[in-house]
Amino acid sequence: MPIVMEVLFRGLVFGSLARKSRVVGYVVSILLFAVLNVWQHIFVTGDWGYLILLIKYLVPGAVLAWCYERSGSVWSAILLHSGINGVVMVLTKV
């Protein structure tokens, strides 16, 4: 999943928008990243209260966008995203 998400949100969305406005690129890519990570909870339960979960995805979305911008390569964001997912998996199994 990190490959698809990073190519879409950092490569396509952020990369396209940041050429015109860096701030818009950050805001739109971060918000879309957060919504994609939360929408399935809302869809399955019908509970719009899950929107509060958007907050927990804002910082990772910003860090991943910054990583992509700084390196100029979507691969750095893919590796970071994979690493974050791996750490979260290990920590939630404990």
Structural commentary:
It is a single chain. By secondary structure, the protein is mainly α. Helices cover 84% and strands 0% of the residues. It contains four helices and no strands. Helix 1 (2-18) crosses helix 3 (54-71), helix 2 runs antiparallel to helix 3 (54-71) and helix 3 packs antiparallel against helix 4 (74-93). The longest helix is centred in the middle third of the chain and has 24 residues, at 22-45. The two termini are 23 Å apart.
Q: How many beta-strand runs?
A: 0
Q: How much helix, percentage-wise, in residues?
A: over 70%
**Shape, per Cα inertia axes:** globular
What percentage of amino acids are in beta strands? under 5%
- The total of helices stands at 4
Calculate Rg over CA atoms.
Answer: 14 Å
User: Which structural category do the helix and sheet elements fall into?
Assistant: mainly alpha
Largest sheet: none
Mean pLDDT: 94
User: H/E series, N to C?
Assistant: HHHH
> Unreliable segments (pLDDT under 50, ≥5 consecutive)?
none
N- and C-termini, Cα separation: 23 Å
Draw up the topology in text.
Layout: H1 2-18, H2 22-45, H3 54-71, H4 74-93
Helix pairs in contact: 1-2, 1-3, 1-4, 2-3, 3-4
Key descriptive features of the protein:
single chain, about 90 residues, mainly alpha, 4 helices
Give a quick precis of the structure:
The chain is mostly helical.
